[in-house]
Design goal:
- The protein is mostly helical.
- It folds into 3 domains: 90 residues, no CATH class; 216 residues, no CATH class; 143 residues, no CATH class.
- 71% of the residues lie in helices and 0% in strands.
- It contains 24 helices and no strands.
- The longest helix has 30 residues.
- It is globular.
- The N and C termini lie far apart (52 Å).
């Protein structure tokens, strides 16, 4: 669209692939199936590590096979998740009782974050159907649309402005920013699940996910598990993590990462459309054609503001997920969307099934005590190290173990206390410093996987970012986040004398 923003995307007619191409596709399919099967069998046949029950080791083999399958994608991720929990339940890996196995297998569908993600998709549907999302997207393009990089920084600033007040990054990024952002790429001729996805959509979507991971670590109130970690620190080692101590301690890392993430992704995951000097004029003309805001747009805007008020100020009185579902029901009652619209939103239902199964599978690692075994195995390795080396290794282990979790809350619940108790046995750093050092990565670690934090499956399932790209970028940015964090945070905490 850099040459003509009014040009519509032209559909590409499909033709039968030649025999050589069909053979290549079959080979890719075989390889996609072979990789997870070989990985799972290889781990299962290997001797179980000392202190780890054989049943737990076999469950980890199954979990690893599913994770490899999600990377190679022989079948859709949601279907792989279902395969994983069915095999685990039938085999009795997590619970020997058939009734308990059934309850465990279905437990992910009772997870509040899963339904909050689903509600975010319905919000997006409302933005699209009423035209409000297009209107806001056009306004953003009119203001900052001359350069794609400008839109990247606009996303970062929007998330930063909301983060101190919204303790759910799923509500903040998935429920508020994504539904608006979803309307922008198509205005530039960048379509999901299409060769045009990289024009601008992929860059914007991944930038939104990356910056929300950063802002989730900046404030104790920006992520619910931050509050949980603060509570556990108070109960476990009797230190208080105040709002000001938290922000002051992470500010240098947070602002630096917010400054570099949009430009870094612009370089390593570049959009094909970089400039569109005529785009603001075109957007202004499109807004003129849309006319004044409609009654349904006003209704949706009022409902979105209600959701924000409940998420920001009503946390003591109503759960974030229930607040989101309340707004969805009001959208139906007020005819912003219909029930048939929701039933037809296959993307929303697909993500619900996919994330619910992953939450269940990751929870199984904690229930089988695999996570406890990992944490206990680390203690002897760290006990005789110097404080700096011990801190780097401890944070690295805590950070990278998030590959095993589909929930930051579950990560905190399973590991935070264990790591904190190990940490305070290492001399040279105060208890408060150790508590902050282990708390800050909670938001950052969400970047690692397509299931690492609430908004991840929303952006993973949006159709703009290929599964392989998601994993590679997650590793690259995860290593960057970790490197910047330890290089700046350790000397900064020492400077603050915390």
């Amino acid at each position: 669209m850099s040459q003509n923003p009014t040009r519509l995307h032209e559909p590409v007619t499909s033709t039968s692939a030649p025999p050589a191409q069909q053979t290549k596709r079959r080979r890719r399919t075989v390889a996609a199936w072979a990789a997870p099967i070989i990985a799972g069998i290889a781990i299962a046949l290997a001797p179980a590590p000392h202190g780890l029950p054989l049943n737990t080791w076999h469950y980890f083999a199954l979990f690893a096979a599913v994770m490899v399958g999600i990377i190679t994608e022989p079948i859709p991720a949601a279907a792989l998740g279902l395969v994983g929990i069915v095999v685990a339940a039938v085999s009795g890996f997590v619970h020997p009782s058939t009734s308990q196995s059934a309850l465990w297998a279905l437990s992910g569908f009772a997870n509040g974050t899963v339904w909050l993600i689903f509600a975010a998709y319905i919000f997006s549907l409302g933005y699209s159907k009423t035209g409000l999302g297009k209107r806001i997207a056009l306004m953003l393009i009119r203001a900052m649309g001359k350069r794609t990089l400008g839109l990247g920084y606009a996303i970062a600033l929007a998330d930063l402005a909301l983060s101190p007040f919204m303790p759910s990054n799923t509500a903040r990024s998935g429920g508020t920013i994504f539904p608006i952002l979803r309307n922008i790429p198509e205005l530039y001729g960048s379509l999901p699940n299409d060769e045009t996805a990289r024009k601008i959509g992929a860059y914007l979507m991944y930038t939104a996910l990356a910056v929300t991971c950063v802002t989730s670590s900046m404030f104790v109130t920006a992520l619910a598990p931050n509050v949980l970690a603060a509570d556990l620190a108070l109960r476990t080692i009797h230190v208080t993590l105040s709002w000001t101590d938290w922000f002051k301690g992470f500010a240098p890392v947070g602002f630096l990462l917010l400054a570099i993430v949009p430009i870094l992704l612009y370089k390593i995951y570049p959009p094909q459309t970089r400039e569109a000097p005529e785009a603001p004029r075109w957007a202004a003309e499109e807004l003129r054609k849309m006319g004044p805001i409609s009654d349904k747009e006003i209704t949706l805007l009022a409902l979105v503001l209600l959701a924000l008020i409940l998420w920001i100020g009503g946390a003591k009185y109503i759960d974030a997920t229930i607040a989101a579902i309340l707004v969805v029901t009001l959208m139906i009652i007020l005819r912003v969307v219909t029930w048939n619209d929701i039933l037809a939103n296959t993307q929303a239902w697909n993500v619900l099934v996919w994330f619910a199964t992953l939450v269940t599978l990751a929870g199984g690692l904690a229930e089988t005590k695999f996570v406890d075994w990992i944490a206990q195995s680390l203690a002897p390795i760290l006990s005789h190290r110097g404080v700096i080396m011990a801190a780097v290794l401890l944070v690295a282990a805590f950070f990278l173990l998030h590959y095993l979790f589909a929930s930051i809350t579950a990560h905190v619940s399973a590991l935070f206390q264990v790591f904190l108790v190990v940490a305070i046995t290492i001399p040279g750093m105060s208890r408060l410093a150790w508590a902050l050092l282990l708390s800050y990565p909670l938001g950052l670690m969400g970047i690692l996987t397509p299931y690492g934090t609430g908004p991840s499956p929303i952006y993973y399932g949006c159709g703009y970012i290929k599964g392989k790209d998601f994993w590679i970028l997650g590793l690259v940015l995860g290593l960057l986040f970790f490197a910047v964090y330890v290089l700046i945070e350790l000397p900064w905490l020492a400077f603050l004398k915390i």
